[in-house]
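thread from #wetlab-drylab

HS: before we spend reagent money on co-crystallization trials with iron/sulfur cluster, can we at least see a predicted complex? here's what I'd submit
DV: go for it
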Amino acid sequence: MGRTLAEKVWDDHVVRRAEGEPDLLYIDLHLLHEVTSPQAFDGLRQNGRRVRRLDLTIATEDHNTPTLDIDKPIADPVSRAQLETLRKNCADFGVRLHPLGDVEQGVVHVVGPQLGLTQPGTTVVCGDSHTSTHGAFGALAFGIGTSQVEHVLATQTLPLARPRTMAITVEGELPADVTAKDLILAVIAKIGTGGGQGYILEYRGSAIEKLSMESRMTICNMSIEAGARAGMIAPDETTFAYLKDRPHAPQGPEWEEAVAYWKTLRTDDDAVFDAEVVIDGSALAPFVTWGTNPGQGAPLSADVPDPASFDDPSARFAAEKALEYMGLAAGQPLREISVDTVFVGSCTNGRIEDLRAAADVLRGRAVADDVRMLVVPGSVRVALQAVEEGLDKVFTEAGAEWRHAGCSMCLGMNPDQLAPGERSASTSNRNFEGRQGKGGRTHLVSPKVAAATAVLGRLGSPADLSATAPSGV
Amino acid sequence: MEAFTVHTGRAVPLRRSNVDTDQIIPAHWLKKVTRDGFEDGLFEAWRKDPEFVLNKPERAGASVLVAGPDFGTGSSREHAVWALQNYGFKAVISSRFADIFRGNSLKNGLLTVVLDQPVVEALQELVEKDPQAEITVDLQERQVRAEGVAAAFELDENSRWRLLNGLDDISITLREDESIAAYEARRPAFKPRTLPV
Ligand code: SF4
């Protein structure tokens, strides 16, 4: 019987397999950041261990870094301590680090791919649940806990039980203004935040094949929000073209050899998935969340649902709690929800294409008076590219704030936070209670919807703007 | 990880059920960047009360915690185990532990012993009456002994073997060094590297 993409990559990394025991899996790339690594390094120290493969390990600073005044000392002592600890650990153990101020600094899941380190058929881990992002390249990539970070540092392997596989097949042409973000929000709304539990998801079908690498990363990024540890997309010409000539991509004859291997990384025709979900891409619309988990979403044209309409008692209860927290009433049209903050950024939607999409909507328009809009590039490289294309000007001229790279308001570990009761349209991945600041209310949206919402002051898509023609056009 | 074979020590009776990990180590301690130094955070809220059992001078230096049922519920934070160990506990006895806490404790070398509730209560009574009374936790014989008590406990063979030999996950994997090196030798040269070679 044939094998799925995930099974092929898994099999290629088994160091040791024994009956009744988890497989010992080799890890090709280990990404580190300041939040989940300190105790791992501490554990190495206590046991007199070293990092086994410094050449497969790389660190950056992202969660705690400020996005303003980055040349000044960091005010919050805890944030400062975490960053200083990472710097000391990397220096002590010899790990390559891109600290704040470095040109390769940025959100860890933006940095790996842009350096060309994330490659098809590799295993990638990081002490961060959104490591699933890297699966867009046909890598097997998943988040791990701090004990596992220590385990990988010391052994470059992890003992793991093989998960099951689920195919998510999306066929058809995505309508105008429907992006990868809308697609993944619709998938999560369909299968639920626990629907992917125990599975590696493989996104496939004609709608997926047509997506750019960056859009594929947006999709795989949010696999974790469907409960899956990992999401994957088979590598193809789009993948190879993205990787060609990146700093860490294979060169010369090695490139040829690599591509030949990468081409074998497709699910065999006769392979069987443990579960399968089919979605009609052409029927999708811009999608937003109304609740406090990423599965509580609906097309922008819908109304806030009535909790009573949920058959499942726990879903009904969750909806009631969510509406209460979000300050929303059943039946309220989503398009009438006004926001005071718009956040464009994060490892979900902080790459150059996302900034371009938002800028295209904003060009010649203005952010509504009572809305603050933050644009936070996912990495310094993304920021430089945006400046080269003049996108920063588009944002600032529209009245948005153009910030330095980092996680920023995605989780509000740095000073970029919502105040209690404030409401945001955010291109990030989690709308949990308090995620963007205590008492803050989050609506997850695509970059296009975020930009249109900033102009309108209420949730809306670019199509809603056609009435308000750009000034000076 | 330190090996655990037989441990004998004085005990702290904790007559509370459902002690969750937030009570063992409050969330604000999670900002620390090391694995040690959590001893002052252990049961922090309760320790503000001078009458709390841990604060009694006669309990200083005790190394066995005899707790109520459902110990270690709540979040998965490993810090709860570190805090107990940093404080000096080698073993915790209860009639029921939360799963994740138990898994974490055995991974870190803190022996969590499950005994029937009447036996746990007998131990609590004993050490309440006589703070100098010692409890022996014998992993080799899988038995807890104290004055008037000899109770067998269960522990799966794999966890027992690891504890007896002081093997954490990493030590176990490091025994596979040959297989890892052999795998590395056959990894293709085109695989990415973060450092120039
Ligand atoms: S951008 Fe958000 S989701 Fe991504 S790594 Fe940072 S905090 Fe996590």
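DV: Chain B has eight helices and seven strands.
HS: ok that's useful, forwarding to the group
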